[in-house]
Design a protein that fits this description.
The chain is mostly beta strands. It has 6 helices and 32 strands. It is 12% helix and 48% strand. A hairpin with an 8-residue loop joins strand 29 (377-382) and strand 30. It is elongated and about 125 Å long.
C-alpha cells in the first residue's frame, strides 16, 4: 500500500507536467515554435472607417466629397502571430486616403494606406475587400447669406441697448444644391441675461433655418465661417463733474484762490462699462504760479476743450469749458539777508563768500509773508562742480525759508572765491612796539 507522501508526490509531478505542456504550447503558438518558424494566423476586421484627408483642398477647388457613392469603410484580413493579433484592437487600425490629387468632379478611385497607432503591428500583413477606395466628388453649389442676430434677455432700468454688432454680417455657404437651396436664414442668438448693465459680447454658433423657421441639419452645409462674434453695447446717460488738476507750490496754494469752472457739469451718454464707475471728467492741468504773485479782483480765464472717452457722446452740446481763477490772499515783499554760505566744498580747497547780503523777494499769504525775517532766510551756493577751479566765480544759490508756507520769486547768485589751501595768505604778524626813550629817564 502506497503511503500518503508518495501520493502527494505523484500529484505534484502530474501538475508540473501539465504546466510544462501548456507552456510549450503557448510558446509555440505565440512565438513561432522552437524551430523559429512562426505560426501565422488570420483575423478579419470588418467595417474599418476610411479617413479622407485634405478635404479642404477640394473646397478650394470648388469641389466636395459626397458620402453617397463613396467607400466609407473597408474590411481587412490581417495575418500574424496569435500573440500579435490578440494584442491588436480595431481602434489601433487607421485607413487613410488623400484627396490632394482629386481635381475634377465625378466618381473615381484613389489609393488608401493602412497604418497602426503602434509601430509593433507594422509586421502584420493584410488583405482587403477593395484594392482602392472609390470616391464620388461633385461641384460645390455656393450662396452668400446674411447673418441676423436674435436677442434674448432684458436691459436694466436707466440703461439703453445699442445696435448689435456682428463680426461678419454675411457668410458664404457651399454644398449640394439640395442642402443649400432650403436655407432661408442664418442666425445667431445672443442672450444678454436679465437686467444687463454693461456691454455683452459672445462668440456664437451659426444656425440655418428653412422657410418655415425650422433648424436645418448642418452636415451637408459648409460655411467659410462657423462662428460669429456678436456684441451688443449697453449705454447709460450720466452727469459728470468737470475738474482741473492744479499744480501748487510754496506760497501758491489752492486754498488761497477763488475759482470756478463753467459749465460745472455735462451730461454724457456712452458705454456703460466705461461710465459705470466714472463720476468726473478732467479737463487738464493748471499751474498756480501762472497767476503771478499779487492778489487781484480780476479773474484769469483759461479755456479747455471737452474731450470725451471714445464711444461717449456729449449730450450737453458744449464743446469747451472755462476756468476762472484768482488769488484772494497773496502778498509779496523783499527781505534782506546776510545768511549766505556754501556746501560741497571740494577737498583741498578753501572758499570765501564775497557777497555780503542779498535782497530776496518772497510771496505767500499776508500772514505768512509778514512773519518772515532775515533770520528765517538762508542762501546756499553749491560748490560741487568747482572741484578743479580756482578764482572768483558767480555761482547760482538756493534760497530756503524756515518758517511758514512762503515762496521765492526769481533766481539768485553769489560771488565766491575758491583757492587751494596753500594759496591762503599767511596771517599777518603784529608790528613790533616802537622803541623810544623811557619817560622815567627824562
Amino acid at each position: 500500500m502506497e503511503n500518503k507522501n508518495t501520493g502527494h508526490r505523484k500529484a505534484l509531478y502530474l501538475l508540473l507536467s501539465v504546466l510544462v505542456a501548456v507552456s510549450i504550447w503557448l510558446f509555440s503558438e505565440l512565438t513561432g515554435g522552437v524551430n523559429g518558424t512562426p505560426r501565422i494566423r488570420e483575423q478579419e476586421f470588418r467595417d474599418i472607417p476610411i479617413e479622407y484627408l485634405q478635404e479642404g483642398t477640394l473646397a478650394d477647388r470648388g469641389l466636395m466629397l459626397l458620402e453617397d457613392g463613396t467607400d466609407m469603410t473597408i474590411d481587412l484580413k490581417l495575418q500574424g502571430t496569435r500573440w500579435m493579433l490578440s494584442c491588436l484592437d480595431r481602434s489601433q487600425i487607421r485607413v487613410t486616403a488623400s484627396l490632394m490629387n482629386v481635381v475634377n468632379a465625378g466618381t473615381q478611385t484613389i489609393n488608401y494606406t493602412v497604418s497602426y497607432t503602434d509601430r509593433q503591428f507594422y509586421a502584420l500583413d493584410y488583405e482587403a475587400n477593395i484594392s482602392s477606395a472609390t470616391v464620388n466628388v461633385s461641384e460645390l453649389y455656393s450662396r452668400s447669406i446674411d447673418v441676423n442676430c436674435e436677442l434674448v434677455g432684458t436691459v436694466a432700468d436707466g440703461f439703453t441697448a445699442g445696435q448689435v454688432e456682428l463680426s461678419h454680417s454675411s457668410i458664404e455657404v457651399r454644398g449640394q444644391a439640395e442642402d443649400i437651396d432650403p436655407i432661408r436664414a442664418a442666425k445667431v442668438t445672443l442672450d444678454i441675461g436679465e437686467d444687463a448693465e454693461e456691454t455683452v459680447s459672445q462668440e456664437l454658433e451659426i444656425q440655418y433655418y428653412d422657410a418655415d423657421g425650422n433648424i436645418l441639419d448642418k452636415s451637408g452645409i459648409h460655411a467659410d465661417i462657423e462662428n460669429v462674434r456678436a456684441t451688443m453695447p449697453v449705454y447709460m446717460t450720466k452727469e459728470l463733474q468737470l475738474t482741473v488738476s492744479f499744480t501748487e507750490a510754496p506760497g501758491a496754494r489752492l486754498r488761497s484762490t477763488d475759482y470756478k469752472i463753467e459749465p460745472l457739469t455735462i451730461t454724457v451718454s456712452g458705454d456703460a462699462t466705461l461710465l459705470k464707475n466714472m463720476e468726473t471728467l478732467n479737463l487738464g492741468g493748471f499751474n498756480l504760479l501762472d497767476l503771478g504773485t499779487n492778489a487781484s479782483e480780476n479773474y484769469t480765464t483759461t479755456y479747455y476743450p471737452i474731450i470725451l472717452p471714445d464711444g461717449c457722446q456729449n449730450l450737453s452740446g458744449v464743446s469747451r469749458a472755462s476756468l476762472k481763477i484768482r488769488f484772494t490772499d497773496i502778498h509779496s515783499t523783499t527781505v534782506t539777508t546776510n545768511n549766505i554760505t556754501w556746501k560741497n566744498l571740494p577737498e583741498g580747497r578753501s572758499a570765501e563768500i564775497l557777497t555780503d547780503s542779498l535782497n530776496i523777494q518772497i510771496f505767500g499769504t499776508a500772514a505768512n509773508v509778514t512773519a518772515v525775517t532775515s533770520d528765517h532766510i538762508s542762501v546756499t551756493a553749491d560748490l560741487a562742480d568747482y572741484s578743479a577751479a580756482s578764482g572768483t566765480y558767480t555761482i547760482p544759490a538756493a534760497v530756503s525759508i524756515s518758517i511758514g508756507d512762503v515762496g521765492v520769486i526769481g533766481e539768485y547768485q553769489v560771488q565766491v572765491t575758491i583757492r587751494e589751501k596753500e594759496e591762503e595768505p599767511p596771517e599777518s604778524e603784529e608790528p613790533p612796539e616802537p622803541q623810544g626813550e623811557d619817560p622815567a629817564e627824562e
